[in-house]
Amino acid sequence: MAMRPYIDKEDLNQALETLKSGGLILYPTDTIWGIGCDATNPEAVEKIFALKGRDKGKSMIILLGNDNQLVSYVREVPEVAYELLEASEKPLTIIYSNAKNLAPNAIAEDGSIGIRVVKHPFCEQLLQRFRKPIVSTSANISGEPSARNFSEISEDIIQGVDYVVKFGQQELSNGTASTIMKLDPSGKFEFIRK
User: Fold this and answer.
1) Distance of CA 16 to CAs 24, 58, 139, Å?
2) How far, in Å, CA of 117 to CA of 84, rounded?
């Protein structure tokens, strides 16, 4: 049985309180370091767009702690989604049609949303305690390369968030962005990024 990494309760609590108060966190995920906020809070999502200088026409990816939560944020979850999530060996972001119960500015103009059910020790505990989805967008200014490791994150991003998670800062990651797949309500899917 694999040992679970030690997660400092104070680190987790600070991240949790920051999310609850509408702030931004800088945190490690199952792919690369990300900037996160409460995905149901439009003001918090707006702060991410401002910090990254991101085009407001681009939607965000949100993280969930388990696939049971999908029905809370997507009107129709095709059955094949659960099969794809179970079969995937690497992080998989699925773009679903007809998002609901999320900040409107986190959702794409066509009503879709990218969702990843995350498998990462810190994220899993944070999501379990927060009980809401968290935005996950790369920790970089739009147009610049994504930071795989904490040491690669620009000072502008570090200074621009309200809390920097300590967990995982020393780890070197070969982190790559997730596979992205678009899924329509009928269950047809296409790969956007492999």
Assistant:
1) 10, 26, 19
2) 11
102 vs 95: CA distance, rounded Å: 14
Burial of 182 (0-12, 13-18, 19+ CB in 10 A): middle
Contact between 69 and 133 (Cβ < 8 Å): yes
Give yes or no for a contact between 123 and 62, defined as CB atoms under 8 angstroms apart.
no
Predicted TM-score (pTM) of this structure: 0.90
Q: Per residue in 112-156, pLDDT tens?
A: 999 999 988 889 999 999 999 999 998 888 888 888 788 889 999
* DSSP assignments along 64-131, one per residue: ESSGGGHHHHBS---HHHHHHHHH-SS-EEEEESSB-SS-GGGS-TTS-EEEEE---HHHHHHHHHH-
Nearest of 179, 63, 43 to residue 113 by alpha carbon: 63
Structure token pair of residue 171: 């780890």
